[in-house]
């Protein structure tokens, strides 16, 4: 009898644990670039202590899961209650409008208003979430390698050619595998494309054909890959839209220059330690400017949640100025909260002397972002453009397509995606 | 009878009791069913559970996949998708020259088809030869034979992702193999960045991972060959090569056919090891059909479930043909055996 009771109790517990729809249960799907998962868990523990009726579960997953599996779950009307995502606009139809649930929507409008459009359908005034951090694409330089090679680090107005030439000299002098790497991502090359005059958005708001700006930078990138200045490992060694970061090559001092973004700061700081000195460089210049691309990850509420009130409570806590400030200080992320940003005085919690100047550089570089780049985070077709770019440019680098064939294919891929979605 | 045996029997009876009881409950209705429907009805009764599982997990998804292949849109539910008839198939097959993927509307699909066909031809041929050689060696009188059989079978037990990762660490630019080459005074090779080497690597890794299974099939065949045939050949002074061609190979042919057909079907489905090892690169030189379907259906920023469904139907047809070939060969073998 006792064992029957035990079995029944265990079964009940299993059923309870397996249900995500219980009142007071909130599941967050979360990925980490650095230490932010631990920081978030710490904050949620405090929230649950203060709100014992709400149980928040942080599901730490790989970024690939967010990119590949979450959209499928959402398309079938399922998913977590809250998720940390980067594909904000394309999936905006799945986010919950928390405006009626929030105690002070004006607080959200005032502090996150600049980025609200990035994560809600066009023309909507919904409050669907907030950016956990603002990011900006940009470069990192290994100062120690440049010093050892006796090469001067290019200045703020240096062009892509200047940077690649300088990095190539360092690579040659120090017998490195390559001069630089850009992450394998259409997003990452879009800032540089805009710096050469690219504009992805047509007059009707739909994708424009590949223009001379994109062609100019991509052609350079292909040439740099062909002559070995850019490591082939990231772009050439994969097919399709597979994302590959080049951070490990930089961390292992295999390249003196790495173009990625501000979200890498904690990762680089943790893994490089005091092995060498490094700093951010902002974005190198093209013919139209020296633009990076803004973006970041947002915490969004999912409209399929069974507990919208509890979700709103969790979101209100996480978006409060104190929590945002502490989260930014501990994760080394730039805050997207206007009030926190304007108040200043962020105390970055690190002993790494490289971090302060790096973050300052990113803040300064954010003023150089061109309008064509500024429009992309809130543009519905940005992901389709990025996907077509990375797929076809890689093929050109691998010698499978000529640049002219690639331009045609990129336009075709994007047109197919638009037609498919309409 | 020893007390140990009596105890075991009592335990056995106790364990079997519920089953016997359940069977006795079914006895009457089953007899009535047999009376009513005859032997065919009984066969249907026993097949029903299996057919239900097959229907739910194979047949229904197959039909759903076919229906999806005739829709477009970004929704997952059929109600949210537009019926487009054969448009997705038309798009897949829109090509000026099937031998040149660049001229095709869906060039990546045709690149994947080309890569898969070449992969299948080479992998199956090498797999058969390598498995045969390994089986012959393991069937001979070698020291620690049991140990070597276990060694060759071990990779079969590994997860394909683990296989892919192990070989990636060995073959990548700064991997173990290049380290060994460098230490030996040789130039490192970009195994996974060169089109030909990367393609060869996917074949080699796939053979390494699966040859243990096929070796086992051939080993079983070798051990079933009567020893007296070899003894007679030895007494006649027949050369070992002639023994192989005249005795071993003909008698091993049924097993070899099984190996070829099974490895053929598996090769068409190549995905996991290759995906982890090369990601389809460099460029698209190791992009195989299953990866194309996966990317287009689920992973790509240019996701298109309808097109992926159409591509998987095409692939399914190829596999169906191969399976029919296998069945036909199996039947022919059986008929020969009867004669």
What would you note in describing this structure?
- The complex is a heterodimer of chains A (422) and B (339).
- Chain A has 422 residues and is an alpha/beta fold.
- Helix content of chain A is 46%, strand content 12%.
- Chain A folds into two domains: 21-134 and 295-343, D-Maltodextrin-Binding Protein, domain 2 (3-Layer(aba) Sandwich), CATH 3.40.190; 135-294 and 361-421, Periplasmic binding protein-like II (D-Maltodextrin-Binding Protein, domain 2, 3-Layer(aba) Sandwich), CATH 3.40.190.
- Chain A is built from 18 helices and eight strands.
- In chain A, strands 1, 2, 3, 4, 5, 6, 7 and 8 form an eight-stranded mixed β-sheet that branches.
- In chain A, helix 2 packs antiparallel against helix 13, helix 5 (143-149) crosses helix 6 (160-174) and helix 17 (382-397) packs antiparallel against helix 18.
- Chain B has two domains: 3-68, no CATH class; 99-338, MetI-like (MetI-like fold, Orthogonal Bundle).
- The mean pLDDT of chain B is 90.
- Chain B contains twelve helices and two strands, in the order αββααααααααααα.
- In chain B, helix 7 packs antiparallel against helix 10.
- Chain B is mostly helical.
- In chain B, 76% of the residues lie in helices and 1% in strands.
- The longest helix of chain B has 66 residues, at 3-68.
- The interface between A and B is large, with 43 and 38 residues.
- Chain B: This is Alpha-1,4-digalacturonate transport system permease protein.
- Chain B: It is found in: Cell membrane.
- Chain B: Belongs to the binding-protein-dependent transport system permease family.
